[in-house]
Amino acid sequence: MATFVESLVGLIDMLKRVDAEGRKAIPAGIPVASQYGDLTGAHCEVEIGRRSNPVPAIATAAFDYFHKLASSNQFGNRGR
Questions:
Q1: What is the domain partition of the chain in residue ranges?
Q2: From CA 59, how far away is CA 30, in angstroms rounded?
Q3: pLDDT tens-digit profile of 19-76?
Q4: Torsion over CA of 42, 36, 34 and 1, rounded to 10 degrees?
């Protein structure tokens, strides 16, 4: 019976063979495990790579965008 670590390594190796769209944005030399899924009206992907954590930068960009959007009127002008 495989240990937890062996099972996890096997799962990651399997996910490295998934041809997800997000893989195109990552340089070819970086090993990445991907998974995607679809529901009616939604598509989701996740990629796992061994680089620095991109989540803080992405979260900051998303917050800034929606903060600007929330303080803008229907024409895109921002209130003061």
A1: 4-70
A2: 23
A3: 888 888 888 788 888 888 888 888 888 888 766 777 788 888 889 888 888 877 777 6
A4: 140
